[in-house]
TrEMBL record:
Record InterPro entries: AB_hydrolase_fold (IPR029058), Mycobacterial_A85_antigen (IPR050583)
Superkingdom in the source lineage: Bacteria
Name of protein: Esterase
Gene3D superfamilies per UniProt: alpha/beta hydrolase (3.40.50.1820)
Lineage: Bacteria, Pseudomonadati, Bacteroidota, Cytophagia, Cytophagales
Coiled-coil intervals: none
Amino acid sequence: MNRLLLTVFVWISALTTYAQPIFSVTFPSTQSAKPLDGRVLLILAKTNKVEPRQQVSDAVETAQLFGIDVDGLKPGQSATVDARAFGYPKRSLKDLAPGDYYVQAVLHKYETFKRSDGHTVKLPMDRGEGQKWQTAPGNLLSKPQKITLRSGAKQTFAVVMDQVNPPIPEPKDTKFIKHIKIQSERLTKFWGRPMYLGAHVLIPAGFDEHPEARYPLCIYHGHFPDDFAGFRETPPPANMDTTDYIERFHIHGYKKIVAQEAYDFYKKWTSKDFPRMLIIEIQHANPYYDDSYAVNSENLGPYGDAIMYELLPEIEKRFRGIGQGWARFAYGGSTGGWESLAVQVFYPDEFNGCFAACPDPITFDAYTNFNLYKDKNAYYAEGPFRRTPRPGQRNYLGQVKCTTEESNHRELALGTHSRSGDQFDIWEAVYSPVGKDGYPKRIWNKLTGEIDSTVATYWREHYDLMHILRRDWKTLGPKVTGKIHIYCGDMDNYYLNNAVYLMEDFLKSVKNPSAGSEVAYGDRAEHCWNGDPTQPNYISRLRYNTMYVDKILKRIEANHPPGADLKSWRY
């Protein structure tokens, strides 16, 4: 009798597995005659308002995503996506409810890198899009198709990736915006193939008419810029469409507001009294993310030194920068906020001030909303009888958008080995040591959230900015006093204000010398608040390039070497 029951159970289990949907994903030889490496992403959406690939997000309305790695996938060969594929937000295909879906597949292509550290890795090289798998040139994709999943039915769906994302054109120079691209010797050596750095350079009015002038340099740090944004020489058309709605700001017509702010900046930039300077946005997208975090890293290579000692000198040479630390400043928000503070800390003599808005965690004692060194799990607060999920994102009322676990599982579906091209994975890629397999050591188990304390210790000693300042204040303090400015909304969507509170306490406490720093908070302000309490967040976030000018000028007047050029650029 027991043997019969076991046989029936096995038969039912096999039948259930057999009845689960299977997707056979292929690409034709017309798209590639050679085998391809990468990540096959299968997306199922409940609406076709936009393509399924554009519907994957941290929002509750996200499309469903599954991912599998492929190595040497040949044209016509099937990549099978079935119940074993890891998914987000549903873990498995077997968890999907019957019904109608719009399906699309994408092959996010990987290249092979033979690095100078002896490791060979497969990664998605940026192709001019800023590490966006949805639009990366050369990625293969299928046309969306409608399917119906039926309960208990044996179903196999063929999905053919016969489309390809087109190349992205290079931005063109204008009167005020110039573009520069160099091959980096340091990065080329590390990655074992040509690697480039670029920048968009906003040159001052009167640049050609004043060949004797030499200019201060401001780095506007942030995510991958396809061109210099927020600057236009013509006003927005009077009849410009204003029907667009931005849910985050609860406002209609934001595109026109953005265009008007860009034109207003142009008018200020060319006005008689505006100080003449160079403003640059750096292009340093890499195989892990849309930028490098502007520091040296075991996994990304020496991006900090390459930017500092290769790219910046070339920009200052071509565009007549002063080329000394007293005449360089950094500012930015979010990733750019962390980068601004980081370059001030790691290259203290090379910059005269940083303005870090809503920075990524500047101490890992408050790594968003948990302590990386004391907590055991990144996804749950754990007690003897209960596990409470950690929130990942919120709005200004504290209403939770998603959990930390959900964001990380989305990344895990997008890519193994820290290859999602997204936020938690890039922190891991930048901050972690290299693992035995050549990929970043996991700071925590991506599936369960269990934190690796040995990796956390490495993070603290190399990239915890508050810890480094405290540890090295005797030598760092005299070099950064008066240079640190930090701004953050007290309802930052990613809980980034928690680390700022700790940094503020530290900066207030230090002596010999005192920090001479500035820390300010925006009441109920969300992410990207950058220090202006007189304007709503949706306006101030568009004014980075004008907000800190007065403070920069005061800093130059108060801190410059004898004989410094304070006049040639003030025409």
